[in-house]
Amino acid sequence: MVSAAIKVEPVLVGAAAVQSQPVEITLRGVGVSYPAGKEGIKTVLSGIDLEITSGEFVVLLGETGCGKSTLLRLMLGQEFPTTGSVAVDGKSVSRIDARCGYVPQKYSLFPDRTVLGNVMYGPENAKAGLLGRLSPSFWSFRRELKAEAIRYLTRMGLREQDLTKYPHQLSGGMQQRVAIAQALLMRPPVLLMDEAFSALDPSTRSSLQEQLHLIWAESRPTVVFVTHNTSEALLLGTRLILMGRYHEDQPLKGNVLVDMGIPASRLPFHERSQNAEFKELHEYVKQVAFSASSMNREEPPVTQEGALP
User: Fold this and answer.
1) Same domain for 181 and 201?
2) How far apart are CA 277 and CA 96, in angstroms?
3) Residues 48 and 67 in one domain
4) Which of 177, 193, 259 is nearest to 232 (CA)?
5) Is the dihedral of CA 90, 107, 46, 299 positive or negative?
6) Which one-letter DSSP state was computed for residue 81?
7) Which domain, by its residues, includes 174?
8) Same domain assignment for residues 167 and 18
9) Model confidence pLDDT, tens digit, residues 283-293
10) CA-CA 20 to 30 A from 223: which of 53, 86, 125, 136?
11) Does residue 104 sit within a domain?
């Protein structure tokens, strides 16, 4: 059983604890359905009502097929709801939203650009425009951008000699570090991360978790992080949204099983996983989300031990 100190309820609005902050992302009555041949209409999401406030680190946790990634793509503007509405910073999302940085599970870097060139590409082209490179101020901007890109890449664990390498010369973990640095360099008010660490080895995953948390703690972008790993969710997030698959026979329940603040998030990062509330909440989440019929294969807890690889 979960102790009373955690105050777990089936549905708690985690944003309620931070209502003094402005709302960054709003979803109202969101549903996603599509034709599925002989099966008729397949519903992926139904009745999603969420408010995510500025500076939250929200983790979307749940088994494969519950709609986590779909929900993230709706926020990005890569997909659109069948019903309801999605807004970022009070503006309806009608296309891929430049206010949102995005890190997918498998990131594709430009093969003909170096690590540094890949990271600088987005902001450099946004600044340059058609004739921007002819302006004297562009080259000053480019020097500052290069210095900042190097800082982000270094923080993500890349060495100076890595910056001139091309993507094919990097491991998968190193490429993902580059992708995260690229997203952060754009300084988006919203950072969307879709299973960004799931394909990495435990050591790399652990170090990236720590670096992401440090950067978030410094600049406090609004982060929405999709994962199927319970330990990772409770370690990183300030708020947990636990999702389940939509069932036609339970239309009023929808996809959201639990929406609550994470008690251990108030603790120093390295102390969280050893906290009693963390462990009890971890067990509660497993009981709610991962039944015997679940398709999810939860990974073992990720430790925070060891130096950067």
Assistant:
1) no
2) 38
3) yes
4) 193
5) negative
6) -
7) 109-187
8) no
9) 888 888 655 33
10) 125
11) no
